[in-house]
Amino acid sequence: xxxxxxxxxxxxxxxxxxxxxxxxxxxxxxxxxxxxxxxxxxxxxxxxxxxxxxxxxxxxxxxxxxxxxxxxxxxxxxxxxxxxxxxxxxxxxxxxxxxxxxxxxxxxxxxxx
Length: 113
Description:
Blueprint: H1 7-24, H2 29-38, H3 46-58, E1 62-69, E2 72-80, H4 82-107
Antiparallel strand pairs: 1-2
Helix pairs in contact: 1-3, 1-4, 2-3
């Protein structure tokens, strides 16, 4: 399915998806990529995920903490902040509104205010 999603559309909602993944449990970059693949987004490039994580951390939506890993160097795990959880809720609210609009467009119905 992910092959049919345009990269432009995918970039538009990755932040919300990342926050939802991290709300379930803290994770690190590669683990996030695996989770995205598991939920049907396909192989999101690391060159997309890591810069987005850095931007989100700078904006205070997530925080990173170093944790030991089995048989390797420490990993940076990310956790959502209170601002990040609020941003995620806002994202899903906006997504529901967009979904309603798209359903109306696909059905040919008119929007009623």
